[in-house]
């Protein structure tokens, strides 16, 4: 029998305060968490939504060093950017704290010390990678090399992003430090480790037997880790930035960021509720739910529960509804490459359109597999669904009510079979939505809410009250009453998903609030209730706005290609005699035309110093014929003639291929006589 809880503690992964949040973060963690919390609040359940910034770790020290500021400067800046973005976007945290607070430092130190005093750690001396130039031990993410499994370049010390295999830094082939680019050396250091192997048996039962209801991607990743066998994991790090290890002789060592960050959920709760925080974390009647991305599954399902169990007084998570990753225009989102749509920039570019992004990201939510965000899909979903379906139905129902009944809810006359069918269809929405939201199926839940609007649009199109207005106003009143009840239901059904739009809709209906238990009712608005004038719930997004975003991404992609350009490896050696066989010369272009029925080919007439020769080159994509007339080009003069699209080509013009695939003709830097040889 499923346990009934008195309250729910909901956490969302702490964003790392070395940069802003982007669409991948929103789709993976914060929108699903906010939908769930808003749903529970609508049901009048006791729920606490905990968020905050993760402000320790190597990436922050590196950014600070690069910018010539302190780590505290970095985290202060980005904590404020992130917090403001969440507030403007409507992510309804009860508290949004930070791991640099005194409360957190004290709690994390005490948590470590409790486990230390209970002998829950093991002390080990080992060799770890050290960057001699930077004079620092390297975190796993700051070592890259060749993956030993798929042999992709650029694999991290903890994971290969191409094949997804978990790694140790020592697994990498030809490792290098991402800080200085130098080859790291092994250096001895002593740290404390949480012996996960000691917790393996109870974790297997707790996850694999007791939580088979977890999402397949979460359950599967946990099973994979458990099947491979768990190993001790370091809880301290050689760093200056972080929470000092509260043990004598641990100078220069701090708590590993993965150890102190999840304790931030607890310390942020204590910051909000200093006298009653424990009931949200230690009472067996409290349900704990973590919303995270897939890169955090192991920490929230295996490591953090092991920490809590070792401490002994905390509850364990009941569910961890992790999402997979969201890609952007077909490519993996990358903060280091600026391949992202940053939330604070979106809010500037699309003011007042928070709910549009919430809708699109939920519709494309990567709930069980990676998904893709594209600007064209964003535009299409806004224009074809939010505007043309939801907004259109609401607008028609309200405008017609003002036109025929002075904005007052008309009475129902006799119901037709079709009326009854429509009323029945929205009576069922509450149970369907609850089933989906209780099981964290937010994408399907939003579809169910939108289905109400589709029912309403079809109902108005089928009944055509504007035609009946000439002959049967009682029938028009019935149709509009049912339509308005459906509009009121939409305000409730969409409340967890699109809170700003639901608030705007309630304002149009002149209703301050609805309760969740009213969802599905056909008498939410009383007869003669005065509604306000209709205003547009959603606006069409024009091509210009989308083109601007696509141009920005195209520019970023080009910049990344240029920054990451590497020349092709040099080909195998040839003997000098082979090279001297090639007759390389300079010629002057006399004529240049397009080859008929060949989009890529240009036909050149070249003065080679002896005669005029014809050469065909596949460069029409990069040059107009008239641009090349009179130019001097380098060519191979002694290639045998070859027919291309019916034209005999007597040689090959030399072009350099740029990193973006474009071609540039090679020319002497000052004019020479046609036929001059290249030696």
UniProtKB/TrEMBL annotation:
Q: Which reaction does it catalyse?
A: tRNA(Met) + L-methionine + ATP = L-methionyl-tRNA(Met) + AMP + diphosphate
- The residue numbers the entry assigns to motif 'HIGH' region are 15-25
Binding positions (Zn(2+)): 147, 150, 160, 163
List GO BP terms, alphabetically. Answer: methionyl-tRNA aminoacylation
**Which N-terminal residues, if any, form the signal peptide?**
none
Q: Where is this motif: 'KMSKS' region?
A: 332-336
Report what the protein is called: Methionine--tRNA ligase
Q: Which organism is it from?
A: Bacteroides coprosuis DSM 18011
Q: What is the lineage of its organism?
A: Bacteria, Pseudomonadati, Bacteroidota, Bacteroidia, Bacteroidales
